[in-house]
Amino acid sequence: MKKFVCLMMLPLALVTTNANARPYPDQLGVCYFFSGNKLKQKTPCVVAAGYGAGAMYTSLQIGKRNYYFETNTMTEDGQTTYKGKPVHEYTRDASFYRVLTDKELETAENEELLFCYRTRDKKLDICYSSND
User: Fold this and answer.
1) Which tens digits make up the pLDDT trace of 61-104?
2) DSSP string of 37-96?
3) Residue 36 confidence (pLDDT)
4) Contacts of 51 (CB under 8 A, 6+ apart)
5) Beta-carbon neighbour count of residue 32 at 10 Å?
6) Is 30 helix (H, G, I), strand (E, B) or coil?
7) pTM for the full predicted model
8) Which listed site, 4, 55, 80, 109, has its alpha carbon 20 to 30 Å from 67?
């Protein structure tokens, strides 16, 4: 009897399941390119972000060039990728560009931060800040 009730409820659960997808409004930001720990370029960029279908994304548009990062929200590790390859996410202090540890990040309540992505081969090391 329990199996029968469960089977009868399955179509109802499938019909009432709600999927959400949402782009956030684009924001003007500043993008920073690093090589090692040295700032190589600072340039205006458009920061676009959103979520849906098991992923979140951040897109950094600089002129005609687009840097698109996607984070899989359907897995435990939540791996972020660029062009299908894993990237390392980290945070820098916006004043001195110092890489912050997790502990420092916890106490950086009113600090201006840069949100960063670095490819494993370190050919791309890009950060951004946006006007919230």
Assistant:
1) 999 999 999 999 888 788 999 999 999 999 999 999 999 998 98
2) TEEEEEEEEEEEEEEETTEEEEEEEETTEEEEEEEESSSSS--EEETTEEEEEEEEETTT
3) 87
4) 20, 21, 22, 57, 73
5) 21
6) strand
7) 0.79
8) 109
What average pLDDT does range 105-112 have in this prediction? 83
Contacts of 36 (CB under 8 A, 6+ apart): none
DSSP H or E segment with residue 27: strand 27-35
Q: What is the CA radius of gyration of the chain?
A: 19
pLDDT in tens, 7-24: 444 444 444 444 556 667
